[in-house]
Design goal:
The protein is mainly alpha-helical. The protein folds into 3 domains: 305 residues, no CATH class; 117 residues, no CATH class; 108 residues. The chain contains 23 helices and 8 strands. It has a 6-stranded mixed beta sheet. Strands 1-2 form a two-stranded antiparallel sheet.
């Protein structure tokens, strides 16, 4: 979906408005799409070119986390911090998606690295650059990217009695750059799509928190327990030493010490992201990602400073427990494992369940080798950690953890590819590309983001039937989008008219508009979707 938005941006030749299937798209800021469009202008629109942006953002996040770790705790701590972030399964997964999240995390990490090191070295220009990068983070995903990080830094300084002069940590050039980058584009967006500012500020933030949105989409929030489980497991086991450092800082009231200001800021940021998201009423699996670089840095300090015996023992227990869970799943039919993992972490599965459908899941036999290998890798790591705990070998404990998690990454990548290929709209879209005549009508039932790549693969722009409860809900109110959204009556008239109509739907027949259409012929099935034609 995000690649298609960028392709349309490149075709339009302008900056705003962003569009999806020709409908104004205001759900995310434009930075990701501008970078994707730039990649497409060089290499052409392709899956590989689309994934380059997130992959490079992931590498940037790892690099700046390692750099800041080295500045704060020495070269070895920096090396461990970078490896910890790279080995966090949640971060690794989202660095493979064509989404704004990896770019958002990378810019937050870079902003913290510049701002905190600038404060340490008393380099206001570097602090200003950090604030400007926070502005870019807001331009990548959310205005909280420019507001929340300086707040965490400011609170850390205030606790140490170092908040004044304010210009030391909020130099006016940096504030102006941050505001201009983070919010300046709103003026252009409001001019291009009237009502954008109200949608962004009121509907997508204030009313979203109150669960009273005028334009809700189909996202299904996690419970607080589900979110905490997903967020913590996504950074496991690095959250253990990170939590140990946070507790240690709190016990000795380290916020009073000037040298601890960067660590207090990182601790406030990590606990704030996890805690405030858990307390909010709307939580998605990836909402914990912005805390992961801070968790990696705190974990690296934990492995440097905390007692190796108890730390290695806890890590051995964590990896051993996960190995046991994977081993039991490997021995069973996988139903509990897949329901638990995909039910909590996969947005498409949750959306489909709410809509009464069944998102296609590959057979357990396809997942089983990945789970079996994960069990072996985790068990090997647990065994090595047990030895390290017995011998108090700190280096062995750290790198046993790193290697065990590194061995999991190919399995995670394989499982992600397996799921995405199994549920892709590509097959249905190519069927339409081959069979639909130029004068035929092509329609998609339900929110277009459920098949956001349809136009990318088919080359055909669909009309949307019952598609206003969507990330395009606000865009549907714009005059230029009026003809893009049909109700059942409009589809019925076209269905019985002289033109051939193709209908793509991910809904089961009994819950689809197809049940009320006469003479619907099933043409193809694939990726959890059906393709029908009226003749």
């Amino acid at each position: 979906m995000h690649a298609e938005i960028a392709r349309e941006l490149l075709s339009a030749g302008g900056a705003l408005p962003l569009t999806l299937s020709g409908v104004p798209y205001v759900d995310k800021p434009p930075l990701l799409y501008a970078l994707l469009a730039a990649a497409f202008s060089v290499a052409g629109p392709s899956e590989a070119a689309a994934r380059v942006v997130s992959a490079l953002a992931g590498l940037l996040a790892v690099g700046v986390t390692a750099w800041l770790g080295a500045r704060l705790g020495g070269a070895r701590a920096g090396f461990v911090a970078g490896l910890a972030l790279l080995g966090s399964l949640g971060f690794f997964a989202y660095a493979r998606y064509v989404r704004p999240d990896a770019l958002f995390v990378a810019l937050l990490a870079l902003g913290f690295a510049l701002a905190l090191s600038g404060l340490m070295d008393e380099r206001p220009i570097r602090v200003a650059a950090g604030l400007a990068v926070f502005g870019l983070a807001a331009l990548a995903k959310d205005p909280l990217g420019v507001l929340a990080p300086p707040l965490a830094i400011g609170v850390a300084l205030a606790l140490a009695g170092r908040a004044r002069p304010i210009g030391r940590w909020l130099p006016w050039p940096g504030v102006l750059l941050a505001a201009g980058l983070g919010f300046g584009w709103w003026v252009v967006a409001e001019a291009a799509t009237p009502g954008f500012a109200w949608y962004t500020i009121v509907d997508n933030h204030v009313l979203n928190v109150a669960q009273a949105r005028h334009f809700p989409d189909e996202d299904v929030p996690l419970s607080a327990v589900e979110f905490a489980t997903v967020a913590l497991l996504g950074a496991a086991p690095w959250v253990v030493p990170a939590a140990g450092v946070v507790v240690g800082l709190a016990r000795r009231r380290a916020w009073r010490e000037t040298a601890e200001i960067p660590w207090i800021a990182l601790a406030l940021w990590a606990t704030g992201v996890f805690g405030l998201t858990a307390l909010s009423s709307f939580r998605l699996p990836h909402y914990g990602l912005p805390a992961y670089p801070a968790v990696a840095l705190l974990a690296a300090r934990g492995w440097r400073d905390l007692g190796v015996r108890w730390l290695a023992t806890v890590h051995a227990v964590v990896l051993g427990g996960l190995a046991l869970a994977c081993g039991l799943a490997w021995l069973g039919d996988g139903s509990v494992f897949l329901a638990g993992v995909l039910g909590a972490t996969d947005v498409a599965t949750r959306k489909s369940g709410l809509a009464g459908g069944a998102v296609p899941i590959p057979p357990w036999s396809a997942f089983r080798p990945f789970v079996g290998f994960a069990a072996l890798a985790l068990a090997g790591g647990a065994l090595a950690l047990a030895v390290a705990a017995a011998t108090r070998a700190r280096t062995l404990a750290v790198y046993a953890t790193v290697v065990a998690l590194a061995l999991l990454l190919p399995s995670a990548a394989g499982a992600l590819s397996l799921v995405s290929a199994h549920r892709a709209v590509k097959g249905i879209a190519e069927e339409v590309r081959q069979r639909a005549a130029p004068e035929d009508v092509v329609a998609h039932e339900g929110p277009i983001e459920n098949a956001g790549a349809f136009e990318w693969y088919s080359g055909r722009r669909p009309v949307m039937v019952d598609g206003r409860r969507s990330v395009l809900g606000f865009g549907a109110t714009q005059p230029q989008a009026r003809d893009s959204f049909w109700d059942d009556a409009e589809l019925s008239r076209a269905w019985s008219g002289p033109r051939r109509v193709w209908l793509v739907t991910g809904r089961p027949p009994e819950r689809s508009v197809v049940a009320r259409l006469g003479g619907a012929q099933l043409v193809a099935v694939g990726g959890g979707r059906r393709l029908y034609a009226n003749r």
